[in-house]
Every structure is written in structure tokens, then in C-alpha cells.
Design a protein that fits this description.
Keywords: Cell membrane, Membrane, Transmembrane, Transmembrane helix. The protein is mainly α. It is built from 22 helices and no strands.
């Protein structure tokens, strides 16, 4: 089990480097982009990118299915079956890319009029949709190869590709906007950059898996059925996730104004950063759970859930609490005081994370127990959409945030958690003791001290705000390492630092 934990730690660490770098770039670029393309222009940019994001759903869950299936067949050394699955996914993605292009062209031509958008931005929004549609034809097939790297549990390489892509995209963004171009040229050059970077997936997949063959001759109904028997459910889960996390901008664009999307987006960024950190910390679990499931190691799956959830919350709780306490000064000094007027949006959205912060999703996905996940996700997303539309009228942006957060707060602990514990045969007492008690006590202590510090001396600039956050983290981890961990946990964390980099 120790080697398994070390593998998860290594994969999570490499994911962390890439994600943190991407987050830092987003933090730096957001005020720069708003300054150069304006509040309304940035709102239009975010809205159109959200629309294109919905077409990522036509992935149909194939990506997650690939990770699971590649991990299982690789564990059994069934290389020919791996090639069949990869080839089938590759050419299926090629067809999906054509469908995505057709869909984006249709929206650009027929449906943009439903949004409350200044007339001068309509043609720009249309052109962006055309650009993304064309590049989708070429970029979608390469998604199959990203699934190969993840299924082989080489998250160091997916992290490297993510790092390169994020860095080059940021450089392109700065260069394009400094040259005086607008959102159309920005999307064009970023799309080309990301498409070229995705070719690295092919290079590394071939190097790691020399037996890799992608051929129409390997496409057959059997692997297609295997992929879609799992991926259809994952598609529906992705759809519900899209409704939960991405429809806010659509609701604001229809019922309020496109300009207000920018104010919401700035505050939403803290939640999106939190979401990325959350998924970063959980990313390595699906193939690991699949591997244990393929070997019939149920005890290992139980231990994986408890241990990974425990360490997740040791990191995640203080991160969320620091963002909540410092949300207003962070936004004010980062983007501007006018955006900080809506800081309650950030705090409301962040609150929901305390009710869904465990490893249940990737564990259940890895062992194929996703039917109830789908039911819960549908309940969550539909409630989210209805509440957001209902509350946007009387409460504006705050209402949209409440509509997003309330379903997680209400349904997470009352419906989803009992199912998880029953499936994994874990008592609530053991769950709460391992995953929540110490995390709540020590992160709560940290947050209380941070709140008092802010009341005594409110941070006067972004540097002071950063110092407050860093000091809070340092205090928290000092307390945790001193008195918050058992001896075996402390020794395990220190032993993780001795891992060795895998060879390509």
C-alpha cells in the first residue's frame, strides 16, 4: 500500500505543479485582459467561451472511460486490447470534432440573439465560434492520446504538456493584446497554440507505449461498446457538471447583461481556482481505484478512500478558508474595488466545497459505481439551474451564486454521502473521525486567528494580503505537523518526499 500511496503522491505532485502554474497565469492575466478588451468585451469573451465549452460535452465521457480502461488493460498486460480501444476512441473523436464544428456554426448563425449583448460585439462572437469550430476538427482526435498518458498513470507528462500549453497560451495572450488586437485574434492564436501543443500527447504516448497502433482496421464494435457502456454515463455526469459550473454566465447573459458577467467572473475565479485545486488533488485516484478494482482488492479501495480523503482535506480546508476570509481584499487589490463589491458571490460559492470535499467521485468512478452518481448529479444540476433562474431576478448576481451553492449544501450530506459510505462499507463514525474532525478543528483555529488579524489590521495592498494568507498556511501546517497528525501519518508524509522520478 505504501508504494501505491507514493505513486498517488507522485502523480498528484506533478499535477500540482502544472495546475498551480496555470492558476498563477490566470491570476496575472485576468486584470490585464479586462484592461485591454474592456468590461463588456471580456464579458462577451467569457460568454462565448462558455458556449463553446458546452460542446466539450460531446466528448461523451470517452476521456474518463479511456483512463479507466487503459489502466485496467495495462495492469493485465493486454496490449492488443489497448490498441483497439485507443484506435476506436481516436476515430470516434474525429467524428465528434466534425459534429462540434457543425454545432458551433449553427449557434453562430441562429442563436446568438438570445443574449443581451451590444450590437457591435455580435459579429466578433460569431467569428470566435467559427474559429473554435474549425480547430475542433483537428484537436478532438488528439484527446484520445491524452487518455493514454493518464491511463498509464504518467501524470508527470500530462502535467508537463499542461505547463507548456499554459505558458505559450499566456505569452500569446499578452503579445496579441499588446499589439492592439481584440478578442477574435486572441481566440484564433490561442486555439492554434493549444492545438499544436496537443501533438505532444502523440509523441509521449508513442514513446511510453511502443506497441501503440492507431488504424481504422482496429476500430470495431466490441471496444466501441466497451467504451460507450461506461462513457455514456460519464457524458451525462459531464453534462450535469457543465450545468452546475458553467450555466451561471448563460443565465446572467440572458436575464441581466453581458457586462455583469465580468463582475461575476472575477468573483467566480476564486471558486474556479478552488475547483481546479480540488480536481488536481483528486486526479490520480481514478486509475488507481480502477487498478485496485481490477485486482479485486476491496480493502485497498476502502483504505484508498479514507486515506486520500483525509489528506485531501488536510490541504483543502485551510485553502478554502483562507480564500473566504481574504476574498474581499484579494479581489479589490487584484482587479479593482468595484469588483470587490460583489465579494459575497465568492464567499457563497466557496462555502459549498465543505459539503463535497472527499474522494467519493473518483473512487466510485474508478470502480464503475456511477449510476447513483448520475442520479445525484442530475438532482444537483437541475436544482442549481432552477434556483439560479428563480433567484437572479430578486437578488441579481448573489441569487445566481446562491442557486449554485445551495444544492451542494443540502443534498451532499443528506443523499450522496450515505450512499458512498454504504457502498464502501464504511461507518459514518469512522468517516467523520478520519476525514473531518481534525481538519475542522485545526483549519477552524487558523481561520479564527486570520479573521482577528484582518479585524486588527486590514491588509492595505495585495502584498500584505498575500503575507496574511501565507502566514495562515504556515501556522496551520506547523500546528498540524506538531500536534495534528498521528506518528504513522507524520512518518508517511515525510517518506513521500523520498519518491523518485519515473523514466520516460
Amino acid at each position: 500500500m505504501a508504494s501505491l500511496k507514493r505513486l498517488i503522491f507522485r502523480n498528484t505532485l506533478f499535477n500540482s505543479f502544472s495546475f498551480i502554474w496555470s492558476i498563477l497565469l490566470n491570476i496575472l492575466l485576468l486584470p490585464f485582459m479586462i484592461e485591454h478588451i474592456g468590461i463588456v468585451g471580456f464579458g462577451v469573451y467569457v460568454l462565448v467561451i462558455s458556449i463553446t465549452g458546452y460542446f466539450a460535452l460531446l466528448d461523451l465521457g470517452i476521456g474518463v472511460s479511456l483512463v479507466k480502461l487503459i489502466a485496467e488493460h495495462n495492469a493485465k498486460k493486454q496490449f492488443e486490447k489497448m490498441n483497439e480501444i485507443i484506435s476506436t476512441a481516436f476515430f470516434t473523436y474525429a467524428i465528434i470534432g466534425l459534429i462540434v464544428a457543425a454545432g458551433l456554426f449553427s449557434i453562430a448563425t441562429l442563436f446568438l440573439g438570445v443574449f443581451n449583448m451590444p450590437q457591435e460585439f455580435y459579429s466578433q462572437a460569431q467569428t470566435i465560434l467559427y474559429i473554435v469550430g474549425i480547430t475542433s476538427i483537428f484537436s478532438f482526435p488528439l484527446l484520445a492520446l491524452n487518455g493514454v498518458l493518464s491511463g498509464l498513470q504518467r501524470y508527470d507528462l500530462t502535467a508537463l504538456i499542461g505547463f507548456i500549453t499554459a505558458t505559450l497560451s499566456a505569452i500569446v495572450t499578452v503579445a496579441v493584446l499588446l499589439a492592439g488586437f481584440g478578442i477574435v485574434e486572441l481566440v484564433l492564436f490561442i486555439s492554434i497554440t493549444q492545438m499544436l501543443c496537443s501533438l505532444l500527447n502523440l509523441f509521449f504516448a508513442k514513446k511510453l507505449f511502443p506497441f501503440l497502433r492507431i488504424s481504422p482496421a482496429l476500430v470495431s464494435k466490441k471496444p466501441l461498446k466497451t467504451i460507450f457502456s461506461f462513457s455514456l454515463l460519464m457524458f451525462l455526469l459531464s453534462l450535469t457538471g457543465m450545468i452546475t459550473f458553467e450555466t451561471d454566465r448563460i443565465v446572467i447573459g440572458i436575464f441581466l447583461t453581458v457586462g455583469l458577467i465580468t463582475f461575476y467572473e472575477v468573483n467566480l475565479k476564486l471558486n474556479l481556482i478552488t475547483r481546479r485545486v480540488f480536481h488536481m488533488l483528486r486526479a490520480a485516484i481514478i486509475p488507481t481505484a480502477s487498478d485496485l478494482n481490477a485486482k479485486g482488492d476491496f480493502k485497498g479501495i476502502q483504505r484508498l478512500y479514507l486515506d486520500s480523503s483525509k489528506y485531501l482535506n488536510f490541504l483543502f480546508f485551510p485553502f478554502v478558508l483562507i480564500l473566504m476570509v481574504l476574498a474581499k481584499p484579494i479581489i479589490a487589490y487584484w482587479v479593482g474595488a468595484e469588483f470587490a463589491e460583489y465579494y459575497l458571490v465568492a464567499e457563497i460559492l466557496l462555502t459549498a466545497w465543505f459539503f463535497v470535499s472527499d474522494m467519493s467521485d473518483p473512487i466510485l468512478t474508478g470502480i464503475g459505481k456511477i449510476h447513483f452518481m448520475l442520479f445525484f448529479a442530475l438532482l444537483h444540476s437541475i436544482s442549481n439551474l432552477i434556483l439560479s433562474i428563480w433567484l437572479v431576478g430578486p437578488f441579481g448576481l448573489i441569487g445566481v451564486a446562491l442557486g449554485t451553492a445551495l444544492p451542494a449544501v443540502v443534498f451532499g450530506p443528506t443523499i450522496f454521502l450515505p450512499y458512498v459510505l454504504k457502498t464502501l462499507k464504511i461507518s459514518f463514525r469512522e468517516f467523520f473521525r478520519e476525514i473531518y474532525v481534525r481538519q475542522i478543528i485545526f483549519s477552524g483555529l487558523m481561520a479564527t486567528i486570520l479573521l482577528l488579524a484582518v479585524q486588527i489590521h486590514y491588509p492595505q495592498n495585495i502584498i500584505e494580503t498575500g503575507i496574511y494568507g501565507a502566514a495562515a498556511f504556515a501556522f496551520y501546517f506547523w500546528v498540524i505537523l506538531s500536534v495534528g497528525l498521528r506518528k504513522d501519518e507524520r512518518e508517511f508524509i515525510l517518506s513521500l518526499l523520498a519518491f523518485k522520478q519515473a523514466k520516460i
